[in-house]
Amino acid sequence: MYPRSRITRRTVLQGMAASIALPWLEGMTSAVETGSGIIGSTAAAAGASSALASPARMAFVFIPNGVHAPDWIPAVDSLALTPSLRPLAAHRSEFTVITGLAHANADAMGDGPGDHARSAACFLTGAHPRKTAGEDIHAGVSVDQVAARAVGASTPFASLELGCEGSSRSGDCDSGYSCAYSSNISWDAPDAPRSKQIHPRHVFERLLGQRDGESSTDRARRIAQRRSVLDTVSSNIHRLKRAISHRDHDRFDDYLESVRAIERRIEMTERMRLDPSESGVSIPSEIPQDYGEYLRLMSDLLVMSFRLDLTRVGTLMYGNEGSNRSYPSLGIADGHHHLTHHGGDAAKIASVRRINEFQTESFAYLLGQLRAHREGEGTLLDSSAIVFAAAISDGDRHNHENLPVLLAGRGGGQLTPGGVLRTHERTPMCNLYLSMLETMGVQRPRFGDSTGMLQGL
Amino acid sequence: MKYRSTYDRSVTLGLACCCCRLIFGVSLGACPEAIVADSEGIRALRESCLDCHEGPKAKADLDLALLLGRALDVGGSLRPSGDDARTLRQMLGRIRRGEMPPASETPLTREAREAIALVIDSGAAASAQEPPPAVRRLNRQEIARSLRDVFFLDAQRVNALPDDEVGEGFDTLADLAVVNELVVERLLEIGEEVAERSVALEGAESGAVQTFGAQELILTRSARRGGSIVSMHSAGSVQANFIAGGAGEYRLRVRACGQQAGADPVRLRSTIDGKVPRTFDVPGGPDSPQWFDSVVALDTAGSHVAEFEFINDYYSPKDPKPSNRDRNAIVWQVEIVGPLGPPVPTEFERFLQRNGAMANGRIEVSAATALTLRALWRRDPSAETCELLLRDARGACGDAATPARTLRYVITAGIVSPNFALRSEADAAHPDGYDLATRLSYFLWSSCPDDELLDAAEEGTLLTEEGYLQQVERMMLDPRASALSERFVAQWLQVDRLRGMQPDPARFPTVNGQLVQSMLAQTNLYVDAIVREGRSVWELLESNFTFVDGPLARHYGMEWRGDEPMQRVAISAAASGVLRHASVLTATSHPTRTSPVRRGKWILEALLDRPPPPPPPGVGVLGENEASASAASVREMLALHRSKSDCAVCHDALDGMGLALEGLDAVGRVRTVDGGSAIDESGTLPDGSVILGTEGVRQLLIGERSFIRGLVRKLMVYSLGRGTNDGDESSIELMVDSLGEAPTLRAIVVKVAQVPVFRGLPSRSLQ
């Protein structure tokens, strides 16, 4: 075994346990979390600093395989919406297109090919992932998890990880990198990606803690028994740990932390008394065949979790990096990844452009839903900062500078969306993240390879 | 997909200067004085590499001087630690590929390069073999199969577990099986489901259920249908006409509520065939339906009528409170259950009965707990552990702590406990009998040890040479050993990825989800037969049988009429073997057409365990990708591509074998023509020789040592739950040598189960 160097969730959860705050829905809007000293000092969530103000939220929507850059990223002298972004016209006042951002740590830096895996792992961590096919994976803690640690104690779920494509099932995903790098963007600890959920029905049931047709008495009995089982299991883990070597405690510690987090959540959801009829969405029992509908459902779940204040931090992967999904509903029979290496072929470029447009349409749906829900004086989108971006700029080139990036929402009044923000070439993407953390009330000196806040948002 | 991603035009030649970017967090001080003179290889390393790779500003963070200081022993040989060994291995790879030193520096002489290889290789050979990771979380398949073997059911909630991550080609790697809130929460749900389905509560009954919704009920008088409910505004009733299967007791159930008004709650009266009236109150409001039950005896089988009548209508239009003016009854559903009998014991309850933990319908909780935990936790629980758990269970169930409820609690807690989902060993280098039983069962069965294996662990026979081998042989014959073909082979041959693929429906309209399942089943059953029947490993490539069902047979152009189920059929040697399986051929194609490059890469990577090196940076994109391209034009494009010397190095090997398989289309059917021109099935190998068709590829592979070696190595990765490294090299070589030229597939698996590091024995001396 190689020694693991970890910043674990333990530190975080200890901080959380000290301050189980009531969810915002109950009217306690100025919960002050102490966070963890190791992770960074945390002020009260800025967006939630005054009574009745909406809490601040953040989400990251990831698109795989980069884009056809000339149609997506605005040219230097233009403020007009590029063809790939036109489906967002109705929301033009609500987002900023940011050009010039880069992920230097997604570059090879001597590790050779593997840009897909590397860039997905770098996307929210800003870290250069260790090249390994399986053992000893290592990236960094992702920005959503940094925020989740700071504000997560206020909601039943510290964060929500959604995706629309299962993890790869066999073979090598990308030039000697473990598939874990390509299929996750959210990382708990440098050696542990957060498992994403891809089944809408499973997500829905988990968020609301409900089972179909269960009576309230049965539910109460089940919850009581759950509490007791978790208690039994905690003491079980303590005894087990004594029997094994210290070196091997990590997984048991993770286990214990997980049990604690579930216990905490049971407490919280019991007090919230959610009624599934409040969810406002109806979720089929199976994953829809139509990919567009699938993306809309997952977007609905993200919106629902924000609206009911079940979480304030979310990630949504439209696909795994390197995804070779075909788009029969768009009349595209070939695989997406395959198409992005078009080598100048006009027909392939047209297909990629169509896929990019489809992604933007899906994102427009998400923005529309967030705008449709009013909260206090504004909308859900007003309280949020939502990134829509890829970790590869041009899918044909695998470059990680001048990334396609769009930031939507007003971040609780801290952002002024609209227009195009041009940053200096190769400005770290992490500068944007550092600024976004601030909208969540999280002040940190740096994140990933950041060199400072992004000005002009 | 993978192949294309290896082209990376953004990386410039500057790449070559930053070798092995590893961060050494710990400085172990300056390099000690060399005690003996450097060997030739070490001298070459120092002379050629330290210019760039020394000191705090070392390129790529590789301070080679520091590393050598750590890794050299007093005799001047390399004895690197795990991280250093890995770095040295990567370095050597770059040196061998000519990436190091970079083009701008003086190249190494051939002698220097060989000397470096020698010193690094011999250092690696001496490095210790790592035991498997001490703690491993079961993956989704292992959880599902373990629960099936302990409780005799398929837990539905297993599907809600997050996907397993794949590394080194397999989903069994310890480092990738993370534990988090989501995983534990799903285990809790699984535990609840399994407990409920395994143990019936006291007083449970069984009987056929007939359900009548609003549409099926017969309405009388004021009763009206409204969507999924029936409402009665004044006197009225609903009737359910049902067929009794025989004389006996029947349970009449109604799910009802009411709009309440006046002093009394809504009142209903049930009758059966107009007799046996029973009256009951329905207190719930319009949104709170509840179930109401009564039991009646019927003397005859056949048709009967159950009726529920609203008997206390109330209407007071002048009541000052509008909501208190009108009383109405609402019926949602009626169920007739019967004839009632004692419940049929679940498979798990039968298991308890067989083992004396249940008799006359009553569970002996202590014995049942010990049995359950032994099976779930893969070792005998201590009396104290059982006591503690039972105490918690009784505490939690309180007054309701019947034996069945208590056992349900034990089952749930047993599944949520890390004793189930985490395989942990106190000392992985020296596993005890139970550890070995667990290692073996998850390797060969992807499931937990059975009673016999646990007994062998308990008695210590598993620790003897003879006892161990006996168990391995027994396990290989057990039906559960099909996990090897279902799990290992599906990942080894990379056919698992078919599940996420969608061949172009316009070009391949007959290929639907069902056919893809048949393709996978064919490969599965085929390999399983080769293992079970003790057939030679080469029969993977050539035999005289295969498995098909009706649709798959027609897919292959065999003349079959109906939808026959999957069965074994005799076929010619030419059409046999996995190289002809639609699963393999589809998984290595694009959705629209074949890819000779992917197929070639698949042969090298999956079958020969020699993945082609990534293309050098800046080579550009291969133009083989036109969706509409015919086989002939793809062949031309590939030829053009190989004419570039940068590409030829690898593509000579890749393309030759892939092109020889062009007689099989993108969904695995034989073809002779594509795009109007005849298929050319020839492929030229790097040495200039020409092979023809599947037969040519087959003859190239049969008898090839690296095929066996690759299989052995991958079985090791799969069973050890970690990647193999230099420390494993000698044991792999020893195994391959001892297997001979035509081992059976079963012998290969058995051999891997006997590797010293897997069994926890000291490795044999290096030869």
Can you walk me through this structure?
- The complex is a heterodimer of chains A (457) and B (767).
- Chain A has twelve helices and eleven strands.
- Chain A has two domains: 9-207 and 282-439, Alkaline Phosphatase, subunit A (3-Layer(aba) Sandwich), CATH 3.40.720; 211-273.
- Chain A has 457 residues and is an alpha/beta fold.
- In chain A, a hairpin with a 2-residue loop joins strand 4 and strand 5 (192-193).
- Chain A has helices at 9-17, 69-72, 115-123, 143-151, 179-182, 200-208, 216-243, 250-272, 291-307, 336-340, 346-372, 429-439; strands at 57-62, 95-102, 160-163, 187-189, 192-193, 313-317, 374-375, 378-379, 384-389, 405-408, 420-428.
- Chain B has 767 residues and is α+β, with helices and mostly antiparallel strands.
- Among the domains of chain B are: 15-126, no CATH class; 209-337, Galactose-binding domain-like (Jelly Rolls), CATH 2.60.120.260; 492-533 and 543-701, no CATH class; 704-759.
- Helices cover 40% and strands 15% of the residues of chain B.
- Chain B is built from 27 helices and 20 strands.
